[in-house]
Automatic annotation (TrEMBL):
Localisation per UniProt entry: Cell outer membrane
UniProt similarity note: Belongs to the outer membrane factor (OMF) (TC 1.B.17) family.
A UniProt-annotated Pfam family: OEP
The protein's name: TolC family protein
Record keyword Endoplasmic reticulum present: no
Species of origin: Arcicella gelida
Alphabetized InterPro entries for the sequence: OMP_efflux, TolC-like
Amino acid sequence: MKQTKMSGVHQAGLFTSKVFSTLRFYNIYFFLLFVLCIPKANAQSTFSYEDFKSLVLKNHPTVKQANLYLSDADAEIMQAKGAFDPKLSSDFDRKAFKGDDYYNRWKNALKIPTWTGVDFKVGYEQSTGKKLLSEESSRLMVAGLSVPIGQGLVIDARRNTLKQANLAKNIAEAERQKLINKTILYAAKSYWEWWFSYQQLQFVREGYDLANQRFVATRERSRVGEQATIDSVEAKITLQDREVALEQAQVDLQNARLALSNYLWDEKEMPLELPENAFPPLSAVRKVDETTLQSLITQAKAQHPEIQKYDLKIQQLGIEEKFRKEMLKPTFNANFNLIADSFSSNPAYTYENSFSTNNHKLGFEFVMPLFLRKERGKLQQIRIKQQSTGFELNLARREIMNEVYSAYNEVKNYERQLRIQQDAAKNQELLTKAEQRKFDIGESTLFLINTRESKLIDMKIKVESLKSKYEKALANLAYTAGLTELL
């Protein structure tokens, strides 16, 4: 019995372990949705930048709109492929005059275009009446093809349109990524503004609480005559000054929370509000160096959405130029069709009335504009566009590289400022503690201790401000390199 009980406890422990293990793997989105949908909850919940960004990428309307670019490009490709769709046609023509049935002509055909430019055709013709032409057959089956020997052999309008549509999908992907990157950049700025406003409020509230404690203590000491009454007045002024700062910090946090809520949406495109119980976690400062810079430069040169767009446009123009060169050739199409009697008209199906080289229709079509002004003008326009797009590409590369370097310099500048400011804040904290000890033994004044303390709070807030600016500079660095986040 004892062994059985121990086994049951062990099994219960394993079950509990599995349950907690499963809970740890729940998608972060459902947790965030739970937090965001219960703004009146008392318990505070952290809301990290990674959680925020994943929610934006999943549900923000602008991101969903950007994803539609690919769907639209797929629709364009489908339209271009439609030029290669087989076509079934039927044509009926009848004439009757003064009671005589002159003719009834019924023609049916199935045309099958191919990628090579050759078009296949199968058909059935039926003709009846008193006034048929001498070369017309009553019932006829046709199977043949049309070959572009001149213009259209290398490339034609159908292939030109489809090739460009395929490249257009890559352009749509670049546009999509560009829009997403821009959305993430603005979202990151809003998040780090909220992050700073929250940190600022904590320090301002801490200063307010210290001033309130000091005012209460000074007031009580002045009542019993241990301290001058004017000291309580000075403590009251400091308290009021910090109370005003606290009110402003609370308003700043509320406004930052509202700005951040612009990026919070659920899966059904319903807006969410960031609850007051959500707070940002403390984040470690990420460092970047020359290796990161060179990696970003390489990434920007190869995959920046703006550069990709120009590269793809140049490829499109290359295809268009090839097509326009093809249009300079004369139109020379050869048509060859095998013909045969239908089974219904001649049950005795022999070699003489079957598909054979003796039974055929053959034709040629030749068209050649004498001056080719339209074709030459189109080709010249395409070459001008190629040059113009090449200039734009070179300019974009230059500007993007300089923007990456500029953003990197800004990041390193904030990094240096932050390091200096953190060191200065530590020194100010030492100075404030020393002043507090002197005040406790009566060798300092209330004015000095308030001044030191206010200076320390301002310096701590400036440290958090620089952290926020540093993170926004990192987001801008990723954006200039064509990324949503640093590698």
